[in-house]
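Problem: given the chain below (178 residues), write out its structure.
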Amino acid sequence: THPLTIGQTTYIQVRAHLDTTHAHLTIGSGCVVGEFASVGLKNSDKDVEGKVNVIDDGGDGSGGAGEEGVEVEDHVVIDAKVVVEEGCTIGEGTVIECGARIGRGARVGKYCKIAPLCSVAPGEVLPDYTVIYGFNERRIDHSKPEAARAKAAEALVEVLKKAEMAIRAAQSARKGGN
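Solution.
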């Protein structure tokens, strides 16, 4: 395995999969990684049920390339069931919504938004403020949402922490009542 670095106030939900088997993984501060999200996968594919299958690259285990880690900058939201393959860089303040896929070696700029079920092709480079929506259509967001997105990511971290504390309290109460 390789190093895993997670910044302060980052919230990783329980069933998220962080893969450091083949390369390092760095997640910045104030990020959220949702349930069933998979970050750092090597040449993966998802079946209809959302299960991740690693594609055989010929048996040598190299994936056709050397180590390529994943770098996730600060205040990034990676929603549920998102797949981020190895070698990717995700820019600060980016939001990747449910079921989206970031292909191997892609470079996502700062403050991008990737709508549900959209994808970034392997090796693709997205400029800052790119919005991917619909049938993978692209546009540039000229509103410069830096402060709003950072504040929204911080608020989401707080909501998730409170929800987790409430769930744990309810579980403790059930155990104490038995």
